[in-house]
Design a protein that fits this description.
Blueprint: E1 6-10, H1 17-32, E2 35-40, E3 54-58, H2 72-86, E4 91-95, H3 97-111, E5 116-121, H4 124-127, H5 136-145, E6 148-151, H6 154-164, E7 170-172, H7 188-192, E8 200-205, H8 214-227, E9 230-235, H9 241-250, E10 257-259, H10 266-270, E11 275-278, H11 287-294, E12 299-302, H12 307-310, E13 317-320, H13 325-337, H14 339-356, H15 359-374
Bound molecules: ligand GMT.
GO molecular function, one term: glycosyltransferase activity
Pfam families: Glyco_transf_4, Glycos_transf_1
Protein name: N-acetyl-alpha-D-glucosaminyl L-malate synthase BshA
């Protein structure tokens, strides 16, 4: 039998799919008996209450007056090395090339080659930063120097090879959900707070970065609402939020569009929706689509990046080219009008989330990688 491992995890701990995946994976590994050490600048938001086998080490950044920019990355590298030595970690599993894989490389230099590094690429570290000449070579080096590299979709693997011309094998490990977190039936009282029984609820959840095309979400909603009385719920915050609020005011939709801000219990909000809207410009995976699928909520979105690896067009959602809001709205109307089709899509979504993106299977895949690097294979 394989021994239990001591694993350090570093990730962006606040809202965002990569932080969710890293935290949920850490929780599952700890439940299985591994010792898990989160090394981040803040407590990961999904960590919640105390869990046995989970430890949290906060990265503190010195604010010395000569620094124009506080050196977070150096502080993180130092902390990774300190924790690795003190806790005798077997490996660091870092999520995102920048800065985590680069810091893990530095930590390994400080600790020794017995400390292994597994890097998971999540998307914008490659699709945006990989093109940035000020970071490109560093990202490439961090990928090459990792003991194993994974990416969350085949599309991201292809793009990483294209953008960075790396020679390192990159393994596909999809993101996952625990379907048990999403099966709660919709709360009728909560739903009644947003919509009348004959009205539909559309949902968009993101960090409101330009890549999410928030204006497209509003345009799709406007076209759907012309045909079917509906409400739109927005969850999350980010740079495009103010623009979205203004657009909603201009269109006179303030009673129809609800901005909930950041929410911790996303499963409950997802459960209220009839459709998820995800018209992103770029999406390496689209964890929110998987969360919606697990709750039986079909997705209408773009066919960008890894979305088609998650949502099957015509089976558990509908996808259209980026920016084709008319087509997306037509698909949404078609699905909302046909209750039989909606139920089939909803069932197919739940089944697909369970079969293809099972938390247990993905954890086993990561464990297999951990044991392989630990044995130097
Ligand atoms: O989409 C974002 O802006 C957040 C970012 C993150 O850090 O979580 O998401 C990326 O990683 C997620 C988890 O693997 C993926 O589901 C998202 O598709 C990916 N975002 C992009 O590729 C734009």
């Amino acid at each position: 039998m394989n021994p239990m491992l001591k694993i350090g995890i570093s990730c962006y701990p606040t809202l965002g799919g990569s932080g969710v995946v890293a935290t949920e994976l850490g929780k599952m590994l700890a439940e299985k008996g591994h010792e898990v050490h989160f090394i981040t600048d803040r407590m990961p938001f999904r960590l919640g209450q105390y869990h046995s086998n989970i430890y949290y080490h906060e990265v503190e950044v010195s604010d010395y007056y000569v620094f124009r920019y506080p050196p977070y990355d150096l502080a993180l590298a130092n902390k990774l090395a300190q924790v690795a030595k003190q806790e005798e970690l077997d490996l660091l599993h870092v999520h995102y090339a920048v800065p985590h894989a680069i810091c893990a490389y530095l930590a390994k230099q400080m600790v020794g080659d017995h400390l292994k590094v597994v890097t998971t690429l999540h998307g914008t570290d490659i699709t945006i930063l990989g093109h940035d000449p000020s970071l490109r070579d560093l990202i490439r080096m961090a990928i090459h120097e990792s003991d194993a590299v994974t990416a969350v979709s085949q599309d991201l693997i292809t793009e990483t090879y294209e953008v960075l011309a790396v020679e390192k094998p990159i393994e596909l490990v999809y993101n996952f959900v625990d379907p048990r977190d999403y099966i709660a039936p919709a709360n009728p009282q909560l739903r009644a707070g947003f919509a009348l029984p004959h009205e539909k609820i559309l949902l968009h959840m993101s960090n409101f970065r330009p890549v999410k095309r928030i204006t497209d979400v509003i345009d799709i909603f406007a076209a759907v609402h012309k045909q079917i009385p509906s409400h739109l719920i927005f969850v999350g915050e980010g740079p495009e939020l103010a623009k979205a609020v203004n657009r909603v005011k201009e269109l006179g939709f303030t009673n129809r569009v609800h901005f909930l801000g950041k929410q911790n219990n996303v499963a409950e909000v997802i459960g209220l929706a009839d459709l998820l809207l995800l018209p992103s410009e770029k999406e390496s995976f689209g964890l929110v689509a998987l969360e919606a699928m697990a709750a039986g909520v079909p997705t209408i979105g773009s066919d960008a990046g890894g979305i088609p690896e998650v949502v099957r067009h015509g089976i558990d959602g509908f996808l259209a080219p980026v920016g084709d809001t008319k087509q997306m709205a037509d698909y949404a109307i078609q699905l909302l009008r046909d209750s039989q089709m909606w139920s089939e899509f909803s069932l197919a979504s739940m089944q697909h989330a369970r079969d293809q993106f099972s938390a247990a299977a993905v954890m086993a895949q990561y464990e297999e990688i951990y044991y392989r690097v630990a044995r130097n294979e």
